[in-house]
Amino acid sequence: MTTQTWIITGASRGFGRALAESALAAGDRVVAAVRRPESVADLEAEYPDDCLIATFDARDVAAAADLVRATLDRFGQLDVLVNNAGRAVVGAVEEVGDAQLRELMELHLFGPAALVRAALPPMRERGTGTIVQMSSQGGRTSFPGVSAYSASKFALEGWSEALAGEVAPFGIRVMLVEPSRFRTGFNGGDVLEFAEPSATYRDVLAGVRADMAGTDGRQEGDPARAAEIIVSLAHADEVPLRLPLGREAVERISRAYRQGLDEVEQWAETARSADFEGVSASVRPI
C-alpha cells in the first residue's frame, strides 16, 4: 500500500484522533493539526518519524497556507486532507445569535474552504489527492433545535459537491462523510453548546435538549471502525461523494431522500406550470 501523507484537523479527540491513529498504524504519515499540541504528544512520541504536530485553529483562515507549507516541508507531499474539526450549538432559531451562527460557519465552512484552497495546488501538481470533509447526517437532513449546526454542514456539502466536479479532472477526489452518532465526545458537556432556552421554545425543544445532552457515551457508532473505513477508502481506487456512516445515518438519510422525492412529485405539476408556454427546456453544460 502506497504511503500517504495526511493533514487532519481536530485530531486531539473523536474522529480526528481515531483517523490519526488508524492512518499511522497503516504506515501513513500524519500532520495532526490541533489547538492543544499536548493532546497528541503521545502520537508523536510513538511515531516520531511519521507524525508532525501543528498548532492550528481551524477557524483561522490565514493559517491554512502555513499548515500546508509545513506539511510539504516535512514530508514532501500531501495526499489526504481531512477537515474534521467541529462542534454544535443546540437551540431554536430565535435562541441562537449571530455570533454563534457565524462561529459555526467559520469552523465548518470558511476554515475548511481556506485549507482546501491551500491544499489544491500541490495536489494538482502531483495529479492526485483526496479531500475528506467530515459532515454529518445533519448535513443532509435537519430537525428542530439544530438549525445553526445543520446550516453550516449543508453549506459545506453544497460547496464540496461543486468542488468535486471542479477538481476531478486533476485526479483529486472529494468525499463527504455523514456520520450518525459516534462515541467521539461530540455530545460531551465540554463540547456541545446549548443556547439559553426561552420561554417560547422551552417545551418545544425539551426532548431534543435532553436527548442531545444524555447520549454521550451511549452512541452506537465506533470511531475506530469508522476511521478504518475512511483510511481504507483513501487508499482505494474509488471513493463515494457521500458516505453515510452508521446504521442510523443510512436509515435517516434514506428516509429524507424518499420524503423529498415524494414531495417533488406531489407538487410537480404546479411547479412545471411556472414556466413560459412553448419555451424549450434549458440545456446546461453539466
Automatic annotation (TrEMBL):
Offer an example of a GO molecular function term for this protein.
oxidoreductase activity
Q: Which Pfam families match?
A: adh_short
Checking InterPro entries in the record gives: NAD(P)-bd_dom_sf, Sc_DH/Rdtase_CS, SDR_fam, SDR_oxidoreductase
Top-rank taxon of the source lineage equals Bacteria
**CDD domains of this UniProt entry?**
17beta-HSD-like_SDR_c
Ordered alphabetically, the record's keywords are: Oxidoreductase
Q: Does the keyword Transmembrane helix apply?
A: no
Question: Per the similarity annotation, which family is this?
Answer: Belongs to the short-chain dehydrogenases/reductases (SDR) family.
Read off the PANTHER family from this record. Answer: SHORT CHAIN DEHYDROGENASE, SHORT-CHAIN DEHYDROGENASE_REDUCTASE FAMILY PROTEIN
The name of this protein is SDR family NAD(P)-dependent oxidoreductase
Report the source organism: Herbidospora galbida
Output the lineage of the source organism: Bacteria, Bacillati, Actinomycetota, Actinomycetes, Streptosporangiales
